[in-house]
Amino acid sequence: MDEQARIMQALGGVSLAGHSVQGGMALPPPHGHEGADGDGRKQDIGDILHQIMTITDQSLDEAQAKKHGLNCHRMKPALFSVLCEIKEKTGLSIRGAQEEDPPDPQLMRLDNMLLAEGVAGPEKGGGSAAAAAAAAASGGASDNSIEHSDYRAKLTQIRQIYHTELEKYEQACNEFTTHVMNLLREQSRTRPISPKEIERMVGIIHRKFSSIQMQLKQSTCEAVMILRSRFLDARRKRRNFSKQATEILNEYFYSHLSNPYPSEEAKEELAKKCSITVSQVSNWFGNKRIRYKKNIGKFQEEANLYAAKTAVTAAHAVAAAVQNNQTNSPTTPNSGFQMKDEEFQLDSAESKNTLLTNMFTGSSGSFNLPNSGDMFMSMQNLNGDSYQGAQVGANVQSQVDTLRHVISQTAGYNDSLGGNSLYSPHGLNANGGWQDAGTPSSVISPTEGPGSVHSDTSN
DNA sequence: CGCCATGATTACCC
DNA sequence: GGGTAATCATGGCG
């Protein structure tokens, strides 16, 4: 500013139609002052200040008239060029093009979060992806639907407030920007303002407003987080699954003990049957695998129980198959062998095979019956593929006989189930992991001696 | 109220 | 991304 004052001093004496530009005042006062002496200058400044202070008292028309008078003044172009020169010399205009302000990471984070939470972004009927995701992870569809709808309603509320406020801010920002731009454009007729400067001013205004916007976004994020945490807290209040659901899951687990990793489809199927979500099924299997592996002994009884259940179910299916085989086409062993049990539907040949081997051999971590070797060989053919070389051309009648044998044995076995260690948990390998499906193992239960593997069922 | 069962979450691994 | 292991936190029972 020193320099500017100096320049102004140097320019002192340049008079425009008797109006002094001394003292740094660019605008010539409307009525004249003589004298450039000290006292007169003071008086001059005081006068100008007074004018400025009382400018608001003037009527708009009066001001407009004055402005017009100034613009039409014959010396105005000269004054304008002088002002331009001063400005150039003082370097006031060279502060324009500076930062191309890079996107604020904080703002980006907030934006991303709001988008993810479904607050920002395209309208989606209030539901939002986040709510849907939360719903998916929140378990029983009917159980917490109330909480869920509550969550959605609150989220919608937040969303609405956010959008209203955002709109308000934008509107205010636009209004203010146009106002300032108009003002500056207007002023650019009397003082040197380049379009670049106007642009810069607009940028400044936008930055100011975006900082306000950021606050809005931040508080919206906070609100969503609070809502979400409350919702998640509520979700954390776990409910035990229904007995039926647990049963279904256990049945699947123990009948696939050799490879208790349900496929995505199987998970969906189980989820549907149990009225739980797929992720809950995954959770359940994750927990089950871990806990089973950790303490196989503890699960022995349960395993027996479910294996027996499965066996009975399967036996029914086998009986049906036998019936089918006898009545339909005895020459084609595989035709008609379909498990149609609605209660425990096995939808692939692989699973049937696993089930059967689980039932009748100890090799996949399920039952262990006397003469199982025989039956194992016989059973393999039923599904056409075998673990140990199928007897492709096996005698159909012998298979039917074997099946009858199996059924009677299974039934009897089931009756005599008395908590004996009938079941040996194979499928678990020495490394503590499960073996691949369909590869019967000879690994012996870590919790039991070899004897238990072939323990007689007294049946 | 303490204990165990159990569903969910988290960190880490492959 | 799905799995394991550890852990948390609640439900439920004696």
UniProtKB/TrEMBL annotation:
- Domain PBC: from-to ranges: 40-233
Q: Where is the composition biased (Basic and acidic residues)?
A: 31-42
The alphabetized UniProt keywords are: DNA-binding, Homeobox, Nucleus, Transcription, Transcription regulation
**Which stretches does the entry tag as region Disordered?**
20-42, 431-459
Kindly list the places in or outside the cell where this protein is found, as annotated in its UniProt entry: Nucleus
Gene3D superfamilies xref list: Homeodomain-like
One of its Pfam families is Homeobox_KN
Q: Can you give the residue ranges of the Homeobox domain?
A: 232-295
Family, similarity comment: Belongs to the TALE/PBX homeobox family.
In its UniProt entry, what is this protein called? PBX homeobox 3
